[in-house]
Specification:
Elements: H1 10-13, H2 16-34, H3 41-46, H4 49-68, E1 76-85, E2 97-101, E3 104-108, E4 114-115, E5 136-144, E6 147-155, E7 162-163, H5 170-195, H6 198-240, H7 254-280, H8 286-304, H9 307-314, H10 323-348, E8 351-355, E9 364-366, E10 372-375, E11 382-383, E12 395-400, E13 403-408, E14 415-417, E15 420-422, E16 424-427, E17 432-435, E18 438-444
């Protein structure tokens, strides 16, 4: 290393040529930064709302199904060994056989019951004459005064008394708000994780998940009650013309099936819209609220159409419960809400900035607010952390009429657009913004110009 010292004369400090040389060096450094490669397509996809919102919706709905499904008894099935047949004090209507199966009382009308094969391939009983003491059977049917009126009977190898004839409605009522709460929680959590804004994420996720639960409960008790009542009316109308003890979705005609499916779709649309309201009711713009409500309603309506077709075509007897169709249906609700919320958000956006470098490279931020604050504080609308050269409130993007302008908020390191340091400047689609060591690409939706 040379011991030679660099000496700067006083007049050189005020020489315009020196200032120009420093400016050229600064612009050159900014150009080098601006030439940084864009994030890979895979990274951009993983940080896209079209990926993480549907995934989060699926996980939230799947968790709701796993929590609530064990408590739902939409199929009433008892099983065990027949210990009594038409024995006192058992009272049965004329022409109906009274059985005690395990610890359960069962009524069998030979003219209306159906005998089917066992779950493990055992041959079906020949008829009511095979219902003798010692027979091991499973019975599916309709609860009547704590007895089970048999619709289908099949053999079983187990003599253990199983099943329940108690009708529990509370799990079905909790299904809607629980799904809304966990889907909203998952969507908000995913949004927070992708922005790494942990402070805002925790606060907003907890508050908005509670609001989503509240509004989904209201949606259940107002339009949901009428919708489900109309759906039940369809099944009842079919039951009045049928000799079957239990009428399922498999027994109704095509028109009634479509009506029933439409009722359920509208019910889930209400829940999806309520989820959207809860997610963006506070600390969001009207555009965000509108987009989430529309996306939630469309997603709920689309996902709600999957329950009944799966139930109609996936099982062959009433022993086959609706657990599978309900699981797939809830997953489709969560997936659809995530997809449609992301899709509506994307289609409705006017302008956005995409992070080109740094930990958030590939992440896009839609400019919903005016001004939208860019900084390294969690309260910022565009939170750029781990960049020491960025101030807590570094720059602001304003919407002015139909255009956007960026303003430097008097920072120490400044803000550059297109390689030039600015105080305030109008933005054009494709502009590169350099803030600290982070590069942002400003993008704007193309507007159609009216024909002359």
């Amino acid at each position: 290393m040379s011991d030679e010292h660099i000496r700067i004369e006083r007049h050189e400090l005020f020489d315009p040529a020196v200032d120009k040389a420093l400016a050229r060096e600064r612009v050159g450094r900014e150009r080098i930064i601006a030439d940084a490669p864009a994030a890979s397509p895979l990274r951009r996809f993983l940080l896209s709302s079209m990926f993480y919102l549907p995934l989060a919706g699926v996980l939230g709905a799947l968790l709701a199904w796993r929590l609530i499904e064990p408590s739902i008894n939409d199929r009433f099935v008892v099983g065990g060994e027949v210990v009594l047949v038409n024995a006192e004090p058992f009272e049965a209507p004329r022409g109906v056989i009274g059985l005690t199966v395990g610890t359960h009382e069962v009524l069998v009308d030979p003219t209306r019951v159906v005998f089917v094969s066992g779950a493990h391939g055992e041959p079906a009983l020949a008829g009511a004459d095979d219902l003798k003491v010692g027979a091991r059977i499973e019975v599916a049917g309709l609860p009547v005064d704590r007895k089970l009126f048999a619709a289908e009977i099949r053999p079983t190898p187990s003599a253990e008394s199983t099943g329940d004839v108690e009708r529990r409605l509370w799990p079905l009522f909790f299904l809607f708000p629980l799904t809304a709460a966990l889907v909203a929680f998952s969507l908000l959590l995913a949004e927070g994780v992708t922005t790494r804004n942990w402070v805002r994420m925790i606060e907003r996720t907890l508050l908005c998940s509670f609001l989503a639960t509240l509004f989904a409960t209201i949606a259940l008790f107002i339009p949901g009650i009428f919708i489900m009542a109309g759906s039940d009316a369809v099944l009842k109308a079919v039951a009045d013309r049928s000799n079957a003890v239990v009428v399922t979705i498999r027994d109704i005609g095509a028109v009634a099936f479509l009506i029933h499916t439409a009722f359920r779709s509208v019910a889930w649309a209400c829940v999806g819209a309520a989820t959207g309201v809860g997610m963006n009711l506070v600390r969001s713009t009207r555009a965000q609220l509108r987009n989430s409500v529309i996306g939630g309603a469309l997603g709920g309506a689309f996902g709600g159409m999957f329950f009944d077709p799966i139930d109609r075509f996936s099982g062959s007897t009433i022993f086959d419960g609706a657990a599978t169709s309900r699981g797939v249906g809830l997953i489709m609700v969560g997936l659809s809400i995530g997809v449609f919320m992301a899709l509506v958000e994307r289609l409705a956006r006017e302008a956005w900035v995409r992070v080109r470098t740094g930990p958030l490279a590939g992440k896009s931020f839609i400019l919903y607010k005016t001004p939208s604050i860019i900084g390294n504080a969690p309260q910022s609308d565009i939170y750029l952390y781990k960049d020491a050269e960025i101030d807590p409130s570094h720059a602001a993007i304003h919407r002015v009429g139909t255009t956007y302008e960026i303003e430097d908020l008097g920072t120490r390191m400044g803000t550059s657009v297109g390689g030039s340091r600015i105080r305030r400047r109008r933005l054009a689609s494709g502009d590169q913004i350099v803030i600290g060591s982070t590069i942002l690409d400003f993008e704007e939706r193309q507007r159609r110009t009216p024909a002359a």
